[in-house]
């Protein structure tokens, strides 16, 4: 049988196609700069449907037969397992590569070749890598969608999506809120992505950090260019009473060149029930996690502590994203 005949006979019997004309079909997700408000509304609508589907039936064969490659060059618990759970709840499967020292990466394989390899087996690739810009490098050679799950101190767009979804679902809106970001604003990629994405909304943004962990000046200028007027503080008390969303972050020890510098700033802020006495009654505390010591565990029973609920929202957002890039939503 010639190749043409073979192709023709297969396509004649395929029962379903993919929605190739949709906005996200086959797209890479590298930076939050790729999204506008309308895109976010679409993703959140699909995520809500995913949530009610999971609550009603648990799983649904929307991505049956699809394979996701989860390629993690840096540690992860939530991002990696929520992507794995997301594809599995939609009937697909996951190729998990966590410890790249056991893969050909340890033999000196370049990222581009690893990407070309994984896309030979999978329909989409989730990539976490220690180098800023690595997701864009991967996307430049990939034929299948690459989803940036954190590129060094660069970006973490899917975390920003789930952070925003959490804010919306918990507080019922995004416009008009006061968001305070606390901790490591210099190296925290989740801060970089979320603050950019908040530029699409009418929010008041406060940055609270020790001087050495302030937002990178380039990013601050980009936010100012979008018309935002973020204010910088060192003392949380100055802004906590007005805050609707307190976004707490871990000091990113692995990004410091000088361990002594980390020692000086670790533990700069710790949120305790005592701290929260100053906060509004209706507000939320969120955190991309993992926490080290910046939120004390006796905060966990406070109804305003939304960081565990945030993880669950993350799975619905990742289910939505996978369905969209694979042309099934
Ligand atoms: C964050 C990350 O890896 O950037 N975690 C996550 O993805 N949920 C935050 C962190 O490591 O501090």
Overview features:
329 residues; alpha/beta; five-stranded parallel sheet
Walk me through the structure.
The protein has 329 residues and is of the alpha/beta class. The chain has 11 helices and 9 strands. The strands form 2 sheets. Strands 7-6-5-8-9 form a 5-stranded parallel sheet. The chain has a 4-stranded parallel sheet with strand order 2-1-3-4, sandwiched between helices. The longest helix is centred in the N-terminal third of the chain and has 20 residues. The model has no long low-confidence stretch (mean pLDDT 94). The structure holds N-carbamoyl-L-aspartate (NCD). The site of N-carbamoyl-L-aspartate has 11 residues, from helix 3 and helix 7.
- Helical region count? 11
Instruction: Give me the secondary-structure category.
Output: alpha/beta
Give the SSE order as H and E letters: HHEHEHEHEHEHEHEEHHEH
Mean pLDDT: 94
Cα-based radius of gyration, to the nearest Å: 21 Å
Ions, cofactors and other ligands present here are:
N-carbamoyl-L-aspartate
Oligomer: single chain
List low-pLDDT spans: none
Percent of residues in helical segments?
25-40%
Most strands sheet: 5 strands, parallel
- Write down the overall geometry: globular
The count of DSSP E runs of length 2 or more, i.e. the number of strands, is 9
Strand % is 5-15%
Q: In which order are the strands of the major sheet placed? A: 7-6-5-8-9
Distance between the termini: 36 Å
